[in-house]
Amino acid sequence: MAIRASAPTQLGNAGQERAVSRQNTLAHWGIQFVKYLVLIFLSVSFILPFFWMVTSAVKNDAQVFTIPPVWIPIPAHWENYWNAWNTYNFNGYLFNTVFLYAIPLTIGVTIASAFVAYGFARVRWPGRDLFFFACVATMMIPYQVTMVPLFITFKNLGWINSYLPLVIPGFFGSPYFIFMLRQFYMTLPQELSDAARIDGASELGIFGRIILPLVKPALIVVALFTFMNAWNEYLQPLIYINQEALYPVSLGINNLRQTMAQIGSQKLAYPYLMSVSTLVTLPIVIAFFFTQRTFIEGISLTGLKG
Amino acid sequence: MAALTQKRRGFTSAQWRDLRTGLFFISPWLLGFFLWTFYPLFSSLYYSFHRYDLLRPAVWVGLKNYVEIFTKDPTFWQVAYNTVYFVGFGIPLGVIGAFLMATLLNTEIKGRSVFRTIFFFPAIVPAIVTAMVWQYLLNVQYGAINAFLQGAGLPVIPFIANPGLAKPSLILIHMWAQGNAMVIFLATLQDVPRSLYEAATVDGANAWHKFRNITIPMCTPVILFNLVIGFIYGFQNFTLPWLLTGGGPNNATEFYSLFLYRNAFIFFRMGKASALAWILFIVIVLFTILLFRSSRRWVYYGGE
Question: Residue B242 belongs to a domain with what CATH number?
């Protein structure tokens, strides 16, 4: 447009410009309209399953099997939450998940990964890139490849029906989080370490007193992700935990699911399953809303240097 | 001459010190690598040549496990087909979906962070909950979606009960939970320098040109990253099919990881499971090499 303005017929040009801009606004609003339409359609299809989960949790059997389905059950049977939670020993499952699994794993993974990532990011040493490449490459190996021999090893150690096989490997660092923390460390200026080295600080001292406090947000991300991974994990407990008293929440839900096999004969199978699903999702939702920024930044960072 | 011998002998004392410091810091990972990756990898190679049921001692059987897998077990080929189907269609579709959603969110819209939260949300929900909810939604007889269809007088869709629809249904659920990839894409899109778009506008490029020639090339490294992450996930996708379909109907969703789990922990055929693990390992190594080779042709690394 700026170029056109130098054309000889100033007046006609202005009119033309106005027509073009009017056309542009129309097209602009059209595009905006379509965009919001798509966004709202997507949002609804993303939310609906959860909405359905939460409302189905407070239905009774009659409300579950009505056709067409009811969106919001009246009356709502709030007692389902309490009753579903007590069909099995979910308090025990919760204790196992948090205190035997998630917390020890989180402590191990966070400390070890922070330590190892430091060696990959803040110390220059011959062979570093080669080792780092090996570390990243191990991320490509699916769990299933090492699953069988690890099981045999842990069985020989007598670790079946304990959380040790799920927790102990975490104390050696997790390649994914080592990678992530390395990206964080790399953003800190090298001068920080150099100045401390000149002052005679040991490498361990630099790590503990200077670098660690600066990457606290990143450590929180690692801790949060590890905790959530443990909370969500299904396959490993399935392999190692066979005693009902030791079940984590995820296996406990599956316990409840078995009742669905007798649908019809078992009362309130669906509402109970949805109640427990809602209760297990709730802490994740709360954690996510309180830490959303950190959370999203943490995920973004793993991809940026990909 | 002295300098030369010194050079041949290797490092200076400062380098030795750095090497020691570096190895000291990475020692937990290094030890873990030998204990939890290297040793299991090769011990599973050992077991793959044995018959082993955890009760009796392992018996050497040579290549019998491999021969059985490739020639005598028709399920294996079904499983291979299922896995290639999921990895080949589902993963790229997931990445494309995530990319398009991120592109949409990166345009001039209000309430971006609200939409981002909504789109991201399914990714953090425990897999078991996802499985329970979708099982409820998709069931033929009492699933919510079919109840609505029935209520509207429409025919029901046997999503996960039909062998032909089970895999597409799982892919749909996979696409629904692409929050991580979407967030990574969105961060990348926000990092593309505005000046590039402004320069293109001056040159008379339209929106499609800009998308095709600026947005996509600038995102190719991250597309590769998300593809790699996606493929790894695709090969080891276990929880959702295991809980939602249990591999059925008619083995239509018996993916590699389910088949491996079944052989190891239900049939207690540790030798065969180890052979399956090694086949998977080799396929993934070849696949990753191929992907990175091809990436040289389509990934643009000149961003800075």
Answer: 1.10.3720.10
